[in-house]
């Protein structure tokens, strides 16, 4: 960055050339700002591989470099070029100390780290203290600084900022920060990874009670129980502008889910809702489904790893009509079974025209529900990712799913049908479909019952693009029952075509 900022160019002739010292300081500020923006994006995509964050980093750093070049060197009063002390790029608005290893921060270090926030007329609107554990001393340094800048703050990240502290100290630090920040008008608040529980939630009461403009709220991995969920519901006065609510990996349960459902009901602008791994059963699932029906702007829905069961799955299918803009739906490991999965598939086919991601892994879905799933998938021409892993679709189901993907689906990049008791014929068809998609990246059919001959056939299909085929190290060519006769029956091409035609008729009906 420094070299680019000090290299003569058309722009430098117009705006002036920066000195090496000036460019080095600007480059440091650009790197920190771009890294913070990219990190924020990565936090919102916990299942991503980081590639989008890298792209955002490159784009943001390029934009900031161009702004610095156009700003040109800063001149002294006597006309000489100089860099004003602690000057930052024109739109430097993010203060982030989360980089580096996770560590405790004490009073002396806090004085140094938080120094830039004391600079008069600084333009920071987002602060991130994540990954640094604040004790009493550091909190005493931070409080007056936060009081002085709270009116300009719009984004606050206090995720994982009391790690390893005794409960009494952690609660007092949270109270201190909450009181200092009371009255600030935030659009973004992240309190994740703090083992809050009800005591922690109420320790942030002053801050939460003063929030009327939140657009993004993150409470992930906070040990939020039924009582803590009720406290969140009580404390936040308004969620009318809320667009993102992430509530992953908590201990909410059914009663807590009812409280979260109350928040959802008061969030008509909600676009992205995550309530995964929260121990929610059928009653809570039904409550959430009914509340979500009021969120007509929903684009992303993530309810993975709960205990919904069939009843909650059916209730959710009835709510899907309210989501015309839905693009991502993650409903894996919900105990949906065939009845719940079919109800959802029928609704999604009808009401989500722009669906890009469909995840129904681990739901005990059998070939009996495959026709409904295939009809839904065939209609979703914008699909990029399909995950039906860890079900019981077998060859009959896999063949129907494969057939549903043959026509169109030009944006498809990933298909996962691992651990589905699929044999040679199903694996072969899925492979043939995958290699014919122009931008396809990964087919996962590991953990199935594909014969050695079938494995050779699949690998041969991918011989020009082996990286598109996932590992097959957990495949069991013998099958769970070592039924050779069943293998021969399934591999009979004429019989397969006959079965497919019969299933297709059923699908169309």
Could you please describe the fold and organization of this structure?
This protein is of the alpha/beta class and 509 residues long. It is 45% helix and 10% strand. It has helices at residues 2-6, 10-15, 20-43, 51-71, 107-113, 136-149, 167-181, 197-203, 205-209, 226-235, 253-265, 282-292, 309-319, 337-351, 370-379, 394-404, 424-435, 452-461, 484-491, 493-508; strands at 74-75, 81-82, 94-96, 103-105, 126-128, 132-134, 155-157, 188-190, 216-218, 244-246, 272-274, 300-302, 328-330, 357-359, 385-387, 414-416, 442-444. A hairpin with a 5-residue loop joins strand 1 (74-75) and strand 2. The longest helix has 24 residues, at 20-43. The model is unreliable at 75-90, 482-494 and 502-509 (pLDDT under 50).
């Amino acid at each position: 960055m420094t070299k680019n900022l000090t290299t003569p160019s058309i722009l430098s002739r117009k705006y002036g050339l920066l000195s090496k010292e000036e460019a080095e300081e600007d480059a440091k500020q650009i790197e920190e700002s771009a890294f913070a923006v990219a990190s924020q994006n990565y936090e919102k995509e916990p299942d991503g591989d980081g590639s989008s964050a890298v792209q955002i980093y490159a784009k943001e750093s390029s934009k900031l470099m161009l702004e610095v070049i156009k700003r040109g060197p800063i001149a002294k009063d006597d006309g000489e070029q100089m860099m004003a002390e602690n000057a930052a790029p024109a739109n430097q608005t993010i203060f982030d100390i989360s980089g580096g290893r996770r560590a405790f921060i004490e009073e002396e270090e806090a004085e140094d780290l938080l120094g830039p926030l004391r600079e008069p007329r600084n333009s920071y609107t987002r602060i991130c203290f994540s990954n640094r554990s604040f004790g009493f001393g550091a909190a005493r340094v931070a409080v007056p600084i936060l009081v002085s800048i709270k009116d300009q703050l719009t984004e606050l990240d206090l995720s994982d900022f009391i790690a390893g502290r005794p409960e009494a100290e952690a609660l007092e630090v949270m109270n201190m920060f909450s009181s200092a920040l009371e009255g600030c008008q935030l659009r973004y608040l992240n309190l994740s990874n703090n083992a809050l529980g009800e005591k922690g939630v109420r320790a942030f009461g002053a801050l939460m009670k003063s929030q009327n403009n939140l657009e993004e709220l993150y409470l992930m991995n906070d040990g939020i129980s039924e009582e803590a969920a009720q406290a969140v519901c009580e404390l936040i006065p308004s969620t009318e502008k809320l667009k993102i609510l992430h509530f992953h990996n908590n201990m909410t349960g059914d009663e807590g889910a009812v409280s979260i459902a109350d928040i959802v009901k008061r969030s008509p602008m909600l676009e992205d809702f995550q309530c995964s791994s929260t121990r929610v059963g059928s009653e809570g699932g039904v409550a959430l489904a009914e509340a979500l029906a009021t969120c007509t702007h929903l684009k992303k829905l993530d309810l993975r790893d709960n205990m919904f069961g069939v009843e909650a799955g059916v209730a959710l299918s009835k709510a899907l009509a309210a989501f015309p803009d839905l693009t991502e739906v993650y409903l894996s490991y919900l105990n949906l079974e065939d009845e719940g999965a079919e109800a959802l598939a029928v609704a999604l086919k009808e009401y989500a025209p722009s669906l890009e991601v469909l995840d129904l892994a681990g739901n005990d879905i059998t070939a009996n529900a495959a026709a409904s799933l295939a009809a839904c998938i065939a209609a979703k021409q914008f699909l990029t990712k399909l995950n039906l892993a860890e079900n019981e679709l077998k060859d009959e189901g896999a063949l129907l799913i494969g057939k549903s993907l043959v026509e169109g689906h030009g944006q498809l990049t990933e298909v996962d049908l691992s651990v589905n008791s699929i044999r040679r014929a199903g694996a072969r068809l899925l492979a043939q479909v995958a290699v014919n998609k122009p931008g396809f990246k990964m087919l996962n059919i590991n953990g199935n019952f594909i014969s050695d001959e079938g494995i050779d056939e699949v690998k041969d299909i991918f011989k020009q693009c082996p990286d598109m085929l996932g590992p097959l190290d957990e495949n069991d060519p013998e099958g769970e029952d070592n039924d050779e006769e069943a293998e021969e029956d399934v591999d009979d091409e004429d019989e397969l075509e006959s079965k497919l035609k019969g299933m297709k008729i059923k699908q169309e009906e």
